[in-house]
Amino acid sequence: EGDGEGGRTVVGAEAARRPLLDPSAYHSSVLRLASHDTQLWTHFDVMDNALAQVTGRKRVVLWPPEADGCLYVEGSSSRVGDIDRWNDETFPRFRAAVGERFECELSPGEVLFIPALWFHNVTSIGFSAAVNVFWRSHPAAHALYDPKDLYGNKDPPPATRALAHAEAAAAEIATLPPPFRDFFARRAIRALHEAAAAGEGARVGAAAEGGA
């Protein structure tokens, strides 16, 4: 035991030595070298990552996962190439995404945390060197991640299968005449929402039992 000041000093020292990330969740590190005005297109990663700026600067624009409907996503990337001067006729919904975005500029020595599923667009200002560190958001769920996915942006295998089934279902529904097509499309969408809500409820319940 010691006085309060000493206690705080010990706790502070222990906290400084404690790793910020669970080492078992580490996935990969990527060195990124880029010339001036090089842009990494808008995309999302399925892993959390930290973008550490070493030299030069970067402009980073981010959108929350809920903005996906306005970003014209194919795979893990947005079809909107120029996020500042886009074509309203080609991408009419993108204008709504402009109000949802966050923007910052990274300088040497600064680190930006980018959560999994957040869309981000990165542009180098001058010559830039940076490091991305990826780690698994759910370390225990190994089936979610492809061990060969160096850049952390491959969809989890269950999600890939689910999206393929959804596309097949949409193709089947499209063969129905209008009244039936709209009716069964709404039912399919509702079934997906209810299944997702049930899964979230089960996850929260399991977490509550584990903490009891």
Automatic annotation (TrEMBL):
<feature type="domain" description="JmjC">
    <location>
        <begin position="1"/>
        <end position="152"/>
    </location>
</feature>
<dbReference type="InterPro" id="IPR003347">
    <property type="entry name" value="JmjC_dom"/>
</dbReference>
<dbReference type="GO" id="GO:0031591">
    <property type="term" value="P:wybutosine biosynthetic process"/>
</dbReference>
<dbReference type="GO" id="GO:0000049">
    <property type="term" value="F:tRNA binding"/>
</dbReference>
<dbReference type="InterPro" id="IPR041667">
    <property type="entry name" value="Cupin_8"/>
</dbReference>
<protein>
    <recommendedName>
        <fullName>JmjC domain-containing protein</fullName>
    </recommendedName>
</protein>
<dbReference type="Pfam" id="PF13621">
    <property type="entry name" value="Cupin_8"/>
</dbReference>
